[in-house]
Amino acid sequence: MKIAHLSDLHYGFSAERDALLERRFFQVQRAHADHLILSGDLSQSGRAEEFRALAALMRRSGFFTSDRLTVLPGNHDLYSFFFQDFHAGGDFYRKWRQVPRTAMKIHAYDQPQYEKDLSFFIHSFRNAFRSILTLNDRETDPYPFIKLLDERVALIVLDSNRCLPRISRNLFCSNGYVDPGSAERILAHEKLNGKFKIVVLHHHLLPASVVSRREGRLFAAATRLINRRTLVALLDRFHPDLVLHGHYHRQEIYQIGKAIPVMNNGDYRKWGLVEIKQGLTITASD
Ligand SMILES: [Fe+2]
């Protein structure tokens, strides 16, 4: 089983990036990957035309079926109201010259809006959600879910955007939150017994202190998973074989908890290849 992992495509940011991404999909196809995982921020701003172009690209490269593709949303795919000005050549700072209005919009973003945005994401990539095991029957919100790739390998897919962009702790619509109750129930699912378990989410699991040393305190605070400690403790209990994520735009392999391997492929110019034969081989590609 060969799994390609890409993240943070931010499709729609610029023509140059989109062209590189198009080549990348066909490169993954030529590497004979059995399955492609895109762990969030597929689009730059969750616009219909970005999702449509991506779906067409997935179809052209042969990945637009549930047995070959798994997707989950990143903050850019959901908080379209916030990211719609953030394109190459765009006026990135217009929002912050209108701080009160932007703050009001973040404050007003509520559960119904979240559900609407998530449902639009699901609908845009609906082919990727066939034959999944969920905790409920809500087609518009299947997260968290399990996808069995073959008789040995299982993906456990989480939505780490469950934090509404409350102004007090999500000023840049970039923080994350995983619902611990449903995460625990899916990790304890009987169908996972004896399987090689790969957990996938969007947000990174590095301690804020590590990110702060590298990128500064503001970046660390603005991008962190708010309940990271709870999730790491949960993962320690169920001990998946691998965790994949993006969000933090770099490629690296690290460990969390009791030696759980984690791979970040948040740099759109790079990708990871996970091969499961007798054991696990992780290759960082560019
Ligand atoms: Fe992100």
How would you describe the overall organization of this protein?
The protein has 286 residues and is an alpha/beta fold. It has one domain (2-285): Purple Acid Phosphatase, chain A, domain 2, CATH 3.60.21.10. Helices cover 35% and strands 20% of the residues. It contains eleven helices and twelve strands. The chain has a seven-stranded mixed β-sheet. A five-stranded mixed β-sheet has the order 3-2-1-11-12, with no helix packed on it. Strand 9 and strand 10 form a beta hairpin. Helix 9 (208-215) packs across helix 10. The radius of gyration is 18 Å and the shape is globular. The protein binds fe (ii) ion. Fe (ii) ion binds next to helix 3.
TL;DR?
With 286 residues, the chain is of the alpha/beta class.
**Shape category:** globular
State the CATH topology.
Answer: Purple Acid Phosphatase, chain A, domain 2
Order of helices and strands: EHEHEHHHHHEEEHEHHHEEEEE
CATH superfamily: Metallo-dependent phosphatases
Percent of residues in β-strands: 15-25%
Small molecules bound: fe (ii) ion
Mind telling me the CATH class?
A: Alpha Beta
Which regions are unreliable across 5 or more consecutive residues at pLDDT < 50? none
Q: Main sheet: which strands, in order across?
A: 4-5-6-7-8-10-9
For this entry, what is the oligomeric state of its chains?
single chain
Structure classification: alpha/beta
How many structural domains in the coordinates? 1
